[in-house]
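Subgroup meeting minutes
Present: P.N., E.W., G.H.
Scribe: E.W.

1. P.N. recapped why we're keeping a running log of single-chain structure predictions: easier to compare across weeks, and new members can see raw inputs and outputs side by side.
2. G.H. added today's entry (111 aa).
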Amino acid sequence: MSNEALEKMLAKGMDNALLRFGLGKGYLDAGDFARAAEHLQHCVAFDPHYSAAWKLLGQALNKQGLLEDARQAWTQGLQVAQEKGDKQAEKEISVFLRRLDKAANPPRQAD
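Output recorded in log:
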């Protein structure tokens, strides 16, 4: 379903976690990271146990250069994934967090 169709559903008052997840993913895929983050934040507000939404929220924030916000989203998502036993989300989020750590602390070059 297109973002336009999903936005129409939202405008009609059909607001829920799944709709916001769809909008967030759609805008993330389209490169509109700020709008994606906005919808994904609403999604996790509706359902704080939606590990896939936390993962995408971290990606949207990371793409905007909001690294600490991305870290917080991924950390929350990792906790949720572990609590739910969502091994795939746990693995993916762990990779994102390691990459974030690696970028923040690059290895030193010998002079």
